[in-house]
Amino acid sequence: MLRKILMTTVAASAMVGSAYAADIPSRRPPPPAYVPPVPIFTWTGFYVGVNGGGMFRANNRDDFANAVFFGGAAPFGGVVAANNSNNNGRFLVGGQAGVNWQINQFVLGIEGDGQAVLGGNDNFNNLGFFGNNRNNVGFLGTVRGRGGIAFDRFLVYGTGGVAFGDSNNRFGNTFVGTVGGVPAIFASNTNNSTRVGYTVGAGVEYAFLDNWSVKLEYLFVDLGRNNRTFLDPVTGAGFAINHREQDHVIRAGLNYRFNWGFGAAPGPVVARY
Description:
By secondary structure, the chain is mainly β. Helix content is about 10%, strand content about 60%. The protein has a domain at about 40-65 and about 90-125 and about 135-175 and about 190-230 and about 245-260: Porin.
């Protein structure tokens, strides 16, 4: 009987102690506050921007070096040589718009741009002629695909697509040569035509703010061939030259990126505690 009384007393004491312990506040630190994950920067989105730079002929070959003469036309002395003082540097300024989509580190996109080209290519006083042959691309535009690899805010990409330009071939008032040994004046009307070709290149872009980036880009542009004919209005004799418009373009740009239609940027996130 005494043994049962002792066991009952111990059990009751244990229950009372447990209840008391449950009332004692915990001294453990509270769990850390939840901090929303910070998205990694993404290039996904639409963008618009401006650009400026230089455009340079891919070669300085004199157009008259490969001239084809007909009807007895010839240069003075029967010689055509590449005495070319070519002004091949031109400035360009314009704008661009495009869209990017980033998948992991890969960035795919498409971009269109248009630039006014200031200046022209001048060939002066070619041996055997006296005159000025001026070729000027007054406008240059491209529509290109872009593909590259992003290192967070730094993007390296290649690009290629269609190029088109307004090729204004303007010639001096007189080109003096001979027809059957007799001095003659050859002339050609101004030839304005929009030409279509291709372009390829590469560039780098850096996002210095979430929506702003700067880029440096190189393009090789080929607008194809443009044949011109010069005639002596008296005899109909003349010569034809074949010009191919190939240029190197180096330009810098500034872009502002939107998030229209994309919502939150996709991709991996990093939790911060």
